[in-house]
Amino acid sequence: MESNFVDYVKILCRSGKGGRGSMHLRHVKYNPNGGPDGGDGGKGGSIILRGNHNYWTLLHLKYERHIFAEHGGNGGKDKCHGTDGKDVYIDVPCGTVVYDAETGKYVCDVTYDGQEIVLLKGGRGGLGNYQFRTATNQAPRYAQPGEPMQEMTVILELKLLADVGLVGFPNAGKSTLLSALSNARPKIANYPFTTMEPSLGIVGYRDQKSFVMADIPGIIEGAAEGKGLGLRFLRHIERNSLLLFMVPGDTDDIKHEYEVLLNELAKFNPDMLSKHRVLAVTKCDLLDDELISMLRNDLQAAWENHAERVVPSPASVPSVPSDLQSDTSAQPVPIVFISAVANKGLDELKDVLWQELNAESNKLAAVMQEDTLVHRDKDMTRFAEELADEGEDEDIEYLADDDVEDIEDIDDIEDYEYEEL
């Protein structure tokens, strides 16, 4: 069955064009030389993005491939103003990022409920000949055409807003932990890639406090190159204030798996290395106290000896830039041994997460403040492949104006040029 979680859509947007000004001279009984009385054209409708916390996916936009605003009405005689075209509001979940589908350039970002961003501005209406009357030109026989519409094919990409993001290999216990700490009920099974879509859960803490935790499908080595589920869900932890790395306690080399995960994040987005991190060793109900103590001492000794590196050596990972091949983590990463099934170490984990979330160097308000998030442009060398992976590789049919609404007869060649974009 097709999933209801949609975080990637491609839409053709078009604003409305401004209405033409009227060129009309008043000729009525008892006033045959009434002068100019042509009214102004109406303003075209705009395409406006609006943040809406009632949405958490882009499912409602998946099959809406064309979004057009109304054109402005033409001016009329007796100084009648043309009707303004209605603006079209596109409600999107908070955390939606917009890219130009033609160039891959970053356009805008909707981060909070009620935020409105004008994506495409409607054209202004043309002035009627009444506006051009002067003492020396009392009967102008010309009027302005309306401004043309704007058109853009955009990619809407959702990046979930959460405080803590879970990072780990398949079957590391991420979904089990989320279900143990919150009321979220993700699918849990004993096979890899059980989690096929991100899940959010609200984790309760002391004194009625809480924070949001996000679970994404498991990462494997080479995910940044498209292996496994690839880049499909890595973007959902770009906004997280804190990353919780999860490695099973029965793993042969816990530190190595942690470095592999860290390396994948570095290749996907180097800025993610600046986030605070916590390491949770899961499934510790399979370990005795002596083994847990030994593992804790070994991991702490590794960081004390500056053995932890942001990425493996240049020889093993040539694709990572050289400026990332250094130890940028001077402080040890907090380590917590937990078992979600046995409810062991969960209170300690919540204490550590809350402490890291509220550290002076990791204030959530600063992270979520507008204009502090930097979004990279799409890599056009892989853009076509990404569109194909998301099912957005088919071309959008560009409709002519005649297919949208009837166009009134035009009076002069200038209006004709504006009518045919």
3D architecture notes:
With 421 residues, the protein is an alpha/beta fold. The protein has two domains: 8-158 and 387-419, Spo0b-associated Gtp-binding Protein, Chain: A, CATH 2.70.210.12; 164-358, P-loop containing nucleotide triphosphate hydrolases (Rossmann fold). The protein has helices at residues 174-181, 254-268, 289-304, 346-357, 364-368, 380-389, 401-404, 413-419, and strands at residues 8-14, 25-28, 31-36, 47-51, 66-68, 88-92, 96-100, 106-110, 116-120, 151-158, 164-168, 199-204, 210-215, 242-248, 276-282, 335-337. It has a six-stranded mixed sheet with strand order 12-13-11-14-15-16, sandwiched between helices. Strands 5-1-10-7-8 form a five-stranded mixed sheet, with no helix packed on it. Strands 6-4-9 form a three-stranded mixed sheet, with no helix packed on it. Strand 2 and strand 3 form a beta hairpin. Residues 306-330, 364-372 and 401-421 have low confidence and may be disordered.
